[in-house]
Model the fold of this input.
Amino acid sequence: MVRILFFAAILLAAAPASAQRLSGNVVPEHYTLWFAPDLEQETFRGRESIDVVLTEPTSAITLHAAEITFGEVTIAAGGRTQTARVTTDPARETATFTVPQPIAEGRATIQVTYTGLLNDKLRGFYISKANGRKYAVSQMEATDARRAFPSFDEPAYKATFDISLMVDAGDTAISNGRQLSDTRGPEPGKHTLTFARTPKMSTYLAAMIVGDFVCREGASDGIPIRVCSTPDKLGLTAFALDAAQQQLAFYNNYFGIRYAFGKLDIIAVPDFSAGAMENAGAITFRERLLLVDPANSSVNVRKRVASIVSHEIAHQWFGNLVTMKWWDDIWLNEGFATWMANKPIATWKPEWRVELDDVDDTQGALGIDALRSTRPIRMKVETPAQINEVFDGIAYDKTAAVLRMIEAYVGPEAFQKGVASYLKRFSYANAAGEDFWTEVATVTGKPVDRILRSFVDQAGAPVLSVRNSCTSGTGELDVQMDRFIGIPGATAAPQTWTLPACFRTTGGQPRCEVVDRPRQTFRAGTCEPTVANADSRGYYFSEYTPESVRALASSGNLGPAERLGLLGGEWWMVRAGRHDIGVYLDLAGSLADDESAAITEAMSTRLAFTGEYLVPSAQRGRYQRWIQARFGPALDALGLPGDARDAEERQSRRAELLGRFASEAPLP
Done:
């Protein structure tokens, strides 16, 4: 799921303070769900049948339910049907069904009739408004399926689902399965849509969308794909369909496991709290994150939409096919989908250079980890509020960055085999972090288990302080590891990781070493300047001496990702008080003519910050003249006012330099 933090804060404010994990003595196998939404009254009726297995005799079954009014509840087992007494606990969001005579161990069927609210909280089954009318939309993650139907609302309780909806005659409905039938009635002015049974999935992946939606149709590898919207926005769906078709085929091939959910609907929804949600076979999106004007969209808009679509389709494997056992391992869903998202795009649109976006995302995650208040990737959560809090940059971007680091260390092909083996072993089931890293370590023969454990279960990020020395033409690297805190003068308790660091002399190939002690020495082979994070694939800060920074910058042998990583790392050395700002300015000045828009943007943002907040007012004229001397020729070389036929990379660089520096007039 792609989350928007502003709305996450609203949801957290509304979430209850406590929750209850279910006992595990009742396990669901199948749900049959019928919904009849009343859009005008903003309510719905529901009928439900749950086939369950009892692991021990009991006279009471507790499941999750919130904001639901119960009608009749019966439990059938062993040829006998009993009417249950219902006791609700709103604080714990549970309902307990108690019958007069104990139910034996084995199979039983729970039958429930109930009513619920199409709420205005953008959670569960809720009301959405657009175009002068109302829609019914679902958003179940993380703990809101219980607002739509009484359920065993924890990710480990996977089951199959049969879903049908009775809706107004002029509307349609979309759910997880392909549509099997559309029949009139049975009530006047209504029709009923019935959907195919789903594979085993968690409750938070159930989806119901009701309204006057229309769809653009396509297919990929024999899988029907639709991108749907309200009628007025159908013309904005073509780009997302193109992206989805390419991405689904890519993932089928990459994972070696065919897409499991029969069809794929991608729906732009009015009034949506999350950025997007990976419901199995029926992905929902905030409209502005899916719809693209074909005539007036920038490359950044198209990249954003393609990336989010790719992220959500990747979830159909990471999260939907294989699901974490509990929310403390949400990184197994979100971090993996983030790691995968740019892979199909890199093959589809190589000119977008999404590998530099990966570097930028790693820098963002390191920025979070530079704070004292950061958290480990995996942390204990129990309540809905605690669960919502872990959908953050640590779960998404840090996890993705750590996975990229391990992939570079073991090799892309070996890592791909490990990932595919994990997905096959746990298909239609649940897994924990240990399951993943054990599988990949076994397949690759590398200490992936030790590496991941050190990054998943402790907070913060390492900094490698690298010092070069040279004796008789042979280089040596002295490497010290500690936790990085991005505050001048701050210290932290001694901390180490099992870290695969990939070094590269500026004229050579990467060589990876496992750093797992506070101080280690490695042979460098030559006396050339050494890059401490080859291709910027590692998740760590690199601290060089100022002389080494200048030598690396002037070598001419750094790739774009390495230049971007060097800029980001050096900026953090300045922020932490480890280096003087002059080192960063020298580095930025040497890259003024760099042809990468990502590097221009990274420099210009930080240089603008420097001018506004770090340069004393008496020195601003001098600083502005320095900016013009370094970056003015680069802007002139790009040409003004520019040509709309220029490559997008060139246009982006020109726009960035104009926006940041063109208005800077020399001061006396």
